[in-house]
Amino acid sequence: MNTPAPRVPPALEPRLQAILQQEYPRFSEAEYARRHAALAGLMDKHGCDHLLVVTDHRAGNAPQWVTGWPGTAEAYVLFRPGEPMLMHMEWHNHVPLARRLARGVDVRWGQHHGIALTVEALRQRGAKRVGLIGPLVVSKYRQLEAAFDMVLLDAGYTQLRMRKSEEEIDWLRIGAALSDAGMRALVAGTRPGMDERELAALVESAYVGIGGTTMIHYIGVTAMDAPHLFVPPQLPSTRRVRAGDIVTCELSAYWWDYPGQVLRSFTVGAEATPRYRELHATAEATFDAVTAVLRHGATMEDILDATALIERNGYSICDDLVHGFGGGYFQPIIGSRSRMAGRALPQMILEENMTIVVQPNPVTTEADESKRSGVQTGELLRITRDGFERMHGLPRGLFRAGQVI
User: Fold this and answer.
1) N or C: which end of the chain has fewer CB within 10 A?
2) d(Cα 281, Cα 285) in Å, to the nearest integer?
């Protein structure tokens, strides 16, 4: 019988442990004031007299950023600088908790007609030009559009989320530590005979009990001598682990709306084959080359040039190699020259306190995708004035199943 690997809570400094131990963690009033001032500036720039911030059908994270309430189903938040916010939300049994978490907000049940109640409230306030942040189904947007001059402000909101405050960075550190705990549990606990679903359970067991939730766990298992996949799939299969396999994975555990992201590869019951050793060496060297150019002011061309080892070694990539992260999937989104991440590089430079994931994922280039091989490595980083800070504490390397890291 296999002995389960021990679950080791993430090691966090006391300041971060104190956040983890709060009944319901909340940012400081100064942090919310900073966010609200930024929204007021965005409204002023676009001539809006009101702002509607939306979670709809469980999509959209802006109400959480503005109020502290994660918008479990629907949340329609009316914001005007200097006034209490009003939020119509679902479901009725969610209202008591929302009133605890969304302090300074008049929280009301939406009665399954939240957008109509929101339109009515805007009319009562004399709204004319309303900014909108967050997704809405077309029928709901049309109700707003029929009554007000609507201005879509998602791009402005994204800009506000790209550069993190010190408090946000602390929450990302917690998300990174929870993600590391998931990876440690996965590597230590993987055994032949387990299927991918059981591997996912290993990951979640490491952080759910201490306050984390799952954003993603992409786990791929394939034989090194006869691979059938080259990138971890987004859904687990019943494929069982066997000696001679390699496991590639990408994990993100949330601390509320603040996740880490860590990518690693490890073998099962065998040393890596020459092909996988070379793939992993290329991934590690590319990570070093890209991170060597990271700093405030770095250009997109700097980063793209640093990926050149992928192609020099005869590989390409499948996933994006660099992307902004933390509150959303942001620019800069960069691939490599053989698999660009769009029609052109984003027109921007890196700025201090942006958080990005660097994740080299070299893959072989057989015409038949079913014969390709690939590995994963990488993690979330914070851009600093002169370089970068690792958000994760997990060691780098190509691991072995059963290893305690």
Assistant:
1) N
2) 6
Shared-domain flag, residues 201 and 142: no
Could you give the number of structural domains in the chain? 2
What CATH number is associated with residue 128?
3.40.350.10
Q: pLDDT, tens digit, for every residue of 385-403?
A: 999 999 999 999 999 999 9
Q: Which domain holds residue 141?
A: 49-152
Buried b (16+ CB within 10 A) or exposed e, 156-194: bbbebbbebeebbbbbbbbbbbbbbbbbbbbbbbbbeeb
Q: Above pLDDT 90, what percent of the chain?
A: 96
The pLDDT tens digits for 57-83 are: 999 999 999 999 999 999 999 999 999
Q: Using the 3D structure, point to which of 152, 181, 203 is the last residue of a domain.
A: 152
Asked, for residue 75, whether it belongs to a domain, the answer is yes
Distance CA 288, CA 295 (A): 14
Residues 142 and 173 grouped into a single domain: no
| pLDDT at 292 exceeding the cut of 90 | yes
Could you please report the per-residue DSSP string of 133-173?
Answer: ES---HHHHHHHHHHSEEEE-HHHHHHHHHB--HHHHHHHH
Q: Is residue 129 part of a domain?
A: yes
Edge to edge, what strands does the sheet with 105-109 contain? 105-109, 85-90, 74-79, 50-55, 129-133, 149-152
Question: What are 139-164's pLDDT values in tens digits?
Answer: 999 999 999 999 999 999 999 999 99
CATH no. for residue 382? 3.90.230.10
